C-alpha cells in the first residue's frame, strides 16, 4: 500500500467510501470533498494498492492559525473495510503528522468514543484524550473524544538557545 496525493479524480471514490463508512453520521457528499481539496490550508492524501490505482482510503488535515503559532486539525481518516488491518490507517496518519511536524504544530482530532481501534492508533502516535464532546456526531448522537498530540519540535527548533 502506498500513500500519495489525493487528486480530483479520486473524489467520487471518496464520496462512495464516505457513504459506506459513515452512513449513520452525515457522510460528506462529493461537493464537500471538492471544497476540502480546493482549500489551500488543507492537505489530503490517498491510500492505494499501487500507483495510479483507485483509492482504498483517504485522509485530510488542515493547517490553521498564524505562521508563528499554527495548529493542525485532522479532518478525516478512512480506509475501505477490505483493507483494514493492513497498516493503511497508520500510513495515512503518518502522512498527516508529517504535515503538522513540518510546521511544529499541535494536532487535534475528534474520534467516536466507541472506535477503540482508532483510539488505540492515535494513542500509539502520541495523542491523548483532552475532552469529551457529547452528541458530537449527527444524526447518530454518538459522543466523541477530542484528542491532541503536542507539537513535535523540528531539529531547527531544538538547536535554538
Any overview of this molecule?
With about 160 residues, the chain is an alpha+beta fold. It has a single domain (about 1-160), classed as Aminopeptidase. The protein has helices at about 10-20, 30-40, 90-100, 115-125, 155-160, and strands spanning about 1-5, 40-50, 55-65, 70-80, 105-110, 130-135, 145-150. The protein has a seven-stranded mixed sheet, sandwiched between helices. Strand 3 (about 55-65) and strand 4 form a beta hairpin. The chain is globular and about 35 Å long. The model is unreliable at about 155-160 (pLDDT under 50).
Summarize the model shown:
The protein has 161 residues and is α+β, with helices and mostly antiparallel strands. It is built from five helices and seven strands, in the order βααβββαβαββα. The chain has one domain (2-158): Gcn5-related N-acetyltransferase (GNAT) (Aminopeptidase, 3-Layer(aba) Sandwich).
SSE diagram, text form:
Layout: E1 2-5, H1 11-21, H2 30-38, E2 42-48, E3 55-64, E4 71-79, H3 88-102, E5 107-112, H4 116-124, E6 128-133, E7 144-149, H5 155-158
Parallel strand pairs: 4-5
Antiparallel strand pairs: 1-2, 2-3, 3-4, 5-7, 6-7
Question: Strand-residue fraction?
Answer: 25-35%
What is the level-2 CATH architecture name?
3-Layer(aba) Sandwich
What is the CATH class name?
Alpha Beta
Averaging pLDDT over every residue, what do you get?
Answer: 91
Rg from Cα: 16 Å
Please indicate the count of domains: 1
**How is the biggest beta sheet arranged?**
7 strands, mixed
> What structural class should be given to the helix and strand makeup?
alpha+beta
Q: Which fold name corresponds to the CATH topology? A: Aminopeptidase
Number of helices: 5
Helix content: 25-40%
* Count of DSSP strands: 7
Order of helices and strands: EHHEEEHEHEEH
- What spatial form do the alpha-carbon principal axes imply? globular
N-end to C-end Cα span: 41 Å
Q: Looking across the biggest beta sheet, what order are the strands in?
A: 1-2-3-4-5-7-6
Report the uncertain regions: 156-161
According to CATH, the homologous superfamily is Gcn5-related N-acetyltransferase (GNAT)
Amino acid at each position: 500500500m502506498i500513500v500519495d496525493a489525493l487528486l480530483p479524480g479520486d473524489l467520487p471514490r471518496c464520496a462512495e467510501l464516505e457513504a459506506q463508512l459513515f452512513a449513520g453520521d452525515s457522510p460528506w457528499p462529493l461537493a464537500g470533498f471538492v471544497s476540502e481539496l480546493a482549500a489551500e490550508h488543507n492537505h489530503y492524501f490517498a491510500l492505494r494498492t499501487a500507483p495510479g490505482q483507485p483509492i482504498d482510503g483517504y485522509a485530510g488535515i488542515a493547517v490553521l492559525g498564524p505562521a508563528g503559532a499554527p495548529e493542525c486539525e485532522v479532518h478525516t481518516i478512512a480506509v475501505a473495510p477490505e483493507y483494514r488491518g493492513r497498516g493503511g490507517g497508520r500510513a495515512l496518519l503518518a502522512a498527516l503528522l508529517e504535515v503538522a511536524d513540518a510546521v511544529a504544530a499541535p494536532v487535534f482530532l475528534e474520534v467516536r468514543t466507541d472506535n477503540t481501534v482508532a483510539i488505540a492508533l492515535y494513542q500509539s502516535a502520541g495523542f491523548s484524550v483532552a475532552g469529551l464532546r457529547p452528541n458530537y456526531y449527527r444524526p447518530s448522537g454518538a459522543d466523541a473524544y477530542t484528542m491532541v498530540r503536542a507539537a513535535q519540535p523540528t531539529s531547527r527548533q531544538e538547536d535554538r538557545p
